[in-house]
Design brief:
Helix content is 85%, strand content 0%. It has two domains: 2-87, no CATH class; 91-124. With 131 residues, it is mainly α. α1 packs parallel to α5 (40-57), α3 crosses α6 (59-90) and α5 crosses α6 (59-90). It contains seven helices and no strands. It holds the Pfam family UTP20_C. This is U3 small nucleolar RNA-associated protein 20 C-terminal domain-containing protein. Residues 2-115 form the U3 small nucleolar RNA-associated protein 20 C-terminal domain. One of its GO terms (cellular component) is small-subunit processome.
Length: 131
């Protein structure tokens, strides 16, 4: 994030606009990804850099470019969702493997959760046998 702030300060407006869309993609990812939501420092720094970039290029240009970036990301997300919905029809064997894997992951998570709860309560926990 700091490098984006430095780019904003180092380049004039016209030079900065050449790679402005890439910068906005990074800023959008940092503000909207679930992993970034938990990091307070990253969130604060992203807001600070976003304000500096917006002030450097102008509010109207920033809003138009950000709208374009959001549209690109939503199109990609919709395409992935569509592809995932069609996958069981196009490749049923792969879809079955993925479904089994997903259920095993859920089963293991449930086991881990109950073991953690039992450890907290001081209950005796049996060790699972290796498969």
């Amino acid at each position: 994030m700091k490098w984006i702030h430095c780019l904003c300060a180092a380049f004039d407006r016209e030079a900065f606009l050449q790679f402005f869309s890439r910068v906005l993609q990074v800023l959008y990812r940092c503000t909207n990804e679930p992993s970034a939501q938990n990091d307070g420092e990253l969130k604060r720094l992203t807001e600070e850099v976003t304000g500096a970039v917006e002030a450097h290029v102008g509010r109207e240009i920033y809003a138009d470019a950000m709208r374009t970036v959001i549209l690109q990301f939503s199109k990609k997300r919709a395409e992935r969702k569509r592809q995932q919905a069609v996958e069981p029809i196009l490749n049923p064997a792969k879809a079955a493997r993925m479904k089994i894997k997903k259920h095993l992951t859920r089963k293991e998570a449930k086991k881990r959760k109950t073991q953690d709860r039992d450890l907290e309560l001081g209950r005796l926990v049996k060790k699972s046998r290796p498969r």
